[in-house]
Amino acid sequence: MAKYELTELGKTMVRRYIVECTAKRKEILDAGKDTGEETKLPTEEDILDDINYMFGLDDEGEYYNSWAVTDNYDSDYPLVLKFGEHLREKVMSSDELTDVIVGYLSTYHYDLECENTKRLIKEIHFRCDSLETENILFNVEACVNYARDFGLKTFLEEDDDCKIWDYAP
Fold first, then answer.
1. 4-6 and 62-65: which strand pairing?
2. What is the DSSP string of 120-146?
3. pTM of the prediction?
4. 78 vs 42: CA distance, rounded Å
5. Were 42 and a residue from 46, 68, 115, 132 both cysteine, which residue would form a disulfide, CB within 3.0 to 4.6 Å?
6. Sign of CA pseudo-dihedral 102, 104, 109, 115
7. Can you say whether the dihedral through the CA atoms of 14, 3, 109, 156 is positive or negative?
């Protein structure tokens, strides 16, 4: 689940960085100094994936990485993006939130067609809809655990047949 997205200034910084990487790559390849067979230039999506799924932000809230422009050369300088200036917390759409909830419930063998499970999804969605992205998965898990630990009385009917429990509730 992506946590960060680029601000308009961040998008400008990334576009500028990609243009500079492209120019350096062309210069190196045209001079015959290296090959580019093993290396592709980063895209905006590649950079966001790097931030969200690989490196994240450091303790100061910065992303800092030098990308390869050819097989043996990196960019002249690293791309530096700062939270609050170039990056912001990604706001999940309602559909993305539903996908997270359904994915979590599927992991725990809920029958997603069961009416009680559909009510549980709506309840979790309601509780999580206004939360920041980083808190959503925690709250989805907390809601499911609460339902399980307390016999599903809050979210589901007591005679729940929507879940194959790992243990008897």
1. unpaired
2. HHHHHHHHHTTS-HHHHHHHHHHHHHH
3. 0.60
4. 12
5. 46
6. negative
7. negative
